[in-house]
């Protein structure tokens, strides 16, 4: 099994879990990049996993499903209209002979979920490298609890997030902790990768423990402060 990506819009990643002949697609906000990938690799799409309801994560589903009607679409209740199967916290399912576990990860949206498959975490907009999603629900407690779930995952866990926001997240982090050498060093690495047109994802939980201020926030007040400052940050 390998995990690839195609890009969508300006900074979305559509993750593609692939076996020899088949793929599962995560959060296809656009259909065309996925169609191009399937044509190029001559593979069959057997499933779609959705993390949350935002258009840039779901708008490709309808067209993909029309071309691959046998593909199983799985997601939380907030995307029910796209789904063959609704999942919630603690659910497990098999797809393409892989076992997936569902984590409820609300805050960015009310029913946001993430998917664990072995040492891979598909977390949509609940966690980014160096950051986390904007709290559109205003439920800061929910998002803070979600970050605690991520913080308990193993160091080796690879984090496949929904957006390429790493550079601006680290620039923000340095405004809060200007002397943090881990963040400075990682920002240098990230800028080099971006200059080389490489993705900065997946990251790992180990790396995020070092550089993600949101994941490290010690209480709800600190998290709320960081998130509100981040909302104002223009980069
Ligand atoms: Fe989102």
Describe the structure.
It is a single chain. The chain is an alpha/beta fold. It has one domain: Metallo-beta-lactamase, Chain A. The protein has 9 helices and 12 strands. Helix 5 packs antiparallel against helix 6. The protein is globular, with a radius of gyration of 17 Å. The structure holds fe (ii) ion. The site of fe (ii) ion has 5 residues, from loops.
CATH homologous superfamily grouping: Ribonuclease Z/Hydroxyacylglutathione hydrolase-like
Q: What is the topology, as strand order, of the major beta sheet? A: 1-2-3-4-5-6
DSSP helix count? 9
Question: What's the total count of β strands?
Answer: 12
Give the H and E element order: EEEHEHHEEEEEEHEHHEHHH
Radius of gyration: 17 Å
**What share of the residues lie within helices?**
25-40%
Spell out which ligands are present: fe (ii) ion
Largest sheet descriptor: 6 strands, mixed
Subunit structure: Monomer.
Domain Metallo-beta-lactamase: 11-163
GO molecular function: hydroxyacylglutathione hydrolase activity
Catalytic activity: an S-(2-hydroxyacyl)glutathione + H2O = a 2-hydroxy carboxylate + glutathione + H(+)
């Amino acid at each position: 099994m390998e995990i690839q990506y195609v890009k969508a819009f300006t900074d979305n990643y559509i993750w593609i879990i692939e076996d020899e002949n088949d793929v599962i697609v995560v959060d296809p906000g656009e259909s065309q990049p996925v169609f191009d990938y399937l044509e190029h690799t001559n593979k069959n799409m057997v499933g779609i996993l959705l993390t949350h309801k935002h258009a840039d994560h779901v708008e490709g589903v309808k067209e993909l499903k029309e071309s691959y009607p046998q593909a199983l679409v799985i997601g939380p209740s907030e995307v029910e209209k796209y789904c063959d199967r609704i999942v919630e916290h603690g659910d497990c399912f098999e797809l393409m002979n892989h076992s997936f576990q569902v984590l409820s990860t609300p805050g960015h949206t009310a029913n946001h979920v993430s998917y664990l498959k072995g040492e891979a975490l598909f977390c949509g907009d609940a966690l980014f490298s160096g950051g986390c999603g904007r709290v559109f629900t205003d439920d800061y407690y929910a998002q803070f609890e979600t970050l605690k779930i991520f913080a308990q995952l193993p160091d080796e866990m690879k984090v496949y997030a929904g957006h390429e926001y790493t550079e601006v997240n680290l620039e923000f982090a340095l405004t809060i902790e200007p002397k943090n050498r881990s963040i400075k060093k990682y920002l240098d690495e990230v800028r080099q990768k971006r200059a080389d047109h490489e993705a900065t994802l997946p990251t790992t939980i180990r790396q995020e423990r070092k550089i993600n201020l949101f994941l490290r926030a010690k209480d709800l007040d600190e998290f709320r402060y960081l998130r509100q400052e981040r909302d104002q940050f223009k980069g």
